[in-house]
Each structure stands twice: as structure tokens, then as C-alpha cells.
Amino acid sequence: MDDQLHGVRDELQRDPYPHYDRARRAPGLTRVPELDAWLVARDADVREVLRRPEDFSSANSLLPDVLPSPAALAVLGGGFGGRPVVVTSDGARHQQLRAPIVRGLSPSRVAAVLPYAAERAAALVDAFAPDPKNGRVELMSAYARRLPGDVVGRIVGLDPSDVPAVVHGGHRAEELLFRPLGEDEQIAAAEDVVAMQHILDRYVRERAARPREDLATEIVASVTEGTEGTEGELTLEQRHEAVAHLQNLLIAGHLTTTALIGTTVLHLLRHPRQWELLCAEPDRIPAAVEEAARYDTALQGFRRITTRPLTLAGTELPAGATVFVAFGGANRDPVRHPQPDEFDITRTPERHLAFGFGAHGCPGAQLAREQLRLTLGELTRRLPGLGLAADHRVTMRPTMIHRSPYRLHLTW
């Protein structure tokens, strides 16, 4: 039965858009067993939920699809974290957790990191494109999984030598909680997650003792604000809180942008005329970024829990009901986006929900957009003959939180 459920869920997650379309056409809300939630797929309804965080709690927004085995949980018990983070908090606690991230990802901080991001983007392309007329690359491993980790690591204050292990640990955390793995693989994934957490704990303790101008220091300061203790030393609870906060920030900071890079390049190359237009008119890159984010949203949605009995879209919901707020569904709603199933970088843009909205809107949206712009600038300028490799089928990862190709083989 579990295998059957995983199979049905995989089918939905690999291509959720037909499900969204049916849900938008149906009266009221649609109950989707594979999500164990009511599906909210219309733009207006999604925005209503996001405007009412007091009625739709985020406390259980990141429920895992898979519960790790007791052996894997025992391994995780030797790590750090496991505390509420910004995406799973409400009210004053959410504002407290969000504040250092907003400061750390301010427009000035993003602007300051862009020269480094441009340098890394160019260097990564240099590594696989020495011959601009004849070559091939698997873009996810050679570029998309590397640039975002380097950039967010720089903002957080990680040494470049620690970034690969932290990025790997983030990917393994996602696999452990959202993919069915055998017990041995669960244990191995848990060990990678714990290794990442111990690296982050080292940074937490170092920044407590010697603050710097980086986001790690901002987060450490936020967990010690208003508390008494020995200067430069943290309690075990404070270390757990800071590591949980850092882990969530880093995973959100690199996994989402990695996914966006993959889907953006995929859809541009699936529409060769639009790719050619972009190469000829690079001023269209910002619009292409917005269209790609709308068309195939990396973060398909989050769960919310009703805090009281209420009515949404004509459907009566009791307190404690789970809704899945589908950003990806809203972004294909024809009421807001004409011909929503067409990928068109020339369309007149409407405000989409790829980066959320309201109190929980993504504070890293600008950083993600800038990395996508840099990526498209590099690829259109240096590899205008880029295309999808005919000998490799593109398979989407079955997930609702970081939707992207497993691999993206390209030729030129």
C-alpha cells in the first residue's frame, strides 16, 4: 500500500499542473488524498490564504512525506537543530526569526555579493565550455547545484572549502524527508545531514566568540538577543536554535535557486525560438526569468493549518484542517495569466507567486533573480547554440518544494 501511495504521489508531483487545472475548474476546494490536504489552486484563493496567517498557520508547513526509520532517527539525534524555523513559525516568533534574514539579504547585501556571483558564474561556465562550438555538459551537477551554494555560502560567511559538504547535506536532508529510501541509505543520508549540522555548529560557536559582518553573525545575535550568559558562549539550546535557523536558510537559499536554474534553462531550450530571441535580445533576460519562475514554479506550494472553523472558496473547513497552498497552481490561473500554459517570455507580466506573498514571502527572491539573470547572461552570450541533448530524456524530480530536472544534459 505504501509503494502504491508513493507511486501515485510521484505521478502527481512530477506533473501537478493537470491536477491544478481540475481543482480550479471544480466548485469550492478539492480534497487530494496524495497530499493529505485540501488543494488551493486559484490565484485569488491562494492570495487570500497568504493574507491571513492568523487563520492559516504555518506551524506544520514542512511535514515530511516519509518518516525516517528508527535507526536514521537515532543518527539524527547526534546532530543539531530540530527547532522551529522561519517557514514553520507564526506571529511574533516568525517576525523574530525572519528579521536577521531580511537584514542579511537586504538590497545592499545582495548588491555587494553580485561581483562574486558573476565571477563564480563565469568560472563555472569556463570549466565546461572551453570550446564554444562543440561540447556537452550535464548542467545540474556542473553549474546549477554549485553557483547557488557558493553565493549563499558567501553571504552567510562560510569558508569556500565547507560549502560542498553543506550543500550536499542540504540535498540529503531533502532526500531523507521526501523520498522513499532503503534503511541503509536513510542512515547514510542522516550521517551526511549530521555532518552538515556539525559544520554549522562550528560556525555558530565561532561567530558567538568573534562576530563578523555576515549573516551567520546576524543569526547568532538573534538567538542570544535579550538573554543573559557568558559573553561569547552559547547554551546548548541556543546552538540548536542557531543551527536549525542556518540550515533552513542555506537549504532554502541554494536548493530553490538550483531548481529555478534547471527549469528556466529547460523551458527556454524546449522553446528554441524563444531561446534564439533571448540570445539576440539579452535585454529580455529579466522578463524571461519572471516567465520561467511563473511557468514552472520551483516551490510549488506549502501546507497551512486552519486555526479556527472557516470558509474558503465556498468550502467549510474545521479548525485543524490542512490546505496545500499551490503557488504553482495560482501561476497557471487563466484569470490572472492569459494562456497560462504557454511559455512566452514576451508576455506582459502579471504579478506571480513563485516567491510567495505576504508575511512569508521569500526574503531571498532578489538574490535568486540575480543569479538567474547572471546565468542566462553567461549562457546566451557564450553558448548561443545550446540545446537539449537528444540522447538523454529529461525527468523531473517528484517533489513539490524544489521542482527541477534530475539531470539536464545539454549540447552545443
From TrEMBL:
<dbReference type="InterPro" id="IPR002397">
    <property type="entry name" value="Cyt_P450_B"/>
</dbReference>
<keyword id="KW-0408">Iron</keyword>
<dbReference type="InterPro" id="IPR036396">
    <property type="entry name" value="Cyt_P450_sf"/>
</dbReference>
<keyword id="KW-0503">Monooxygenase</keyword>
<dbReference type="InterPro" id="IPR017972">
    <property type="entry name" value="Cyt_P450_CS"/>
</dbReference>
<comment type="similarity">
    <text>Belongs to the cytochrome P450 family.</text>
</comment>
<dbReference type="InterPro" id="IPR001128">
    <property type="entry name" value="Cyt_P450"/>
</dbReference>
<protein>
    <submittedName>
        <fullName>Cytochrome P450</fullName>
    </submittedName>
</protein>
<keyword id="KW-0560">Oxidoreductase</keyword>
<keyword id="KW-0349">Heme</keyword>
<dbReference type="Pfam" id="PF00067">
    <property type="entry name" value="p450"/>
</dbReference>
<feature type="region of interest" description="Disordered">
    <location>
        <begin position="1"/>
        <end position="23"/>
    </location>
</feature>
<keyword id="KW-0479">Metal-binding</keyword>
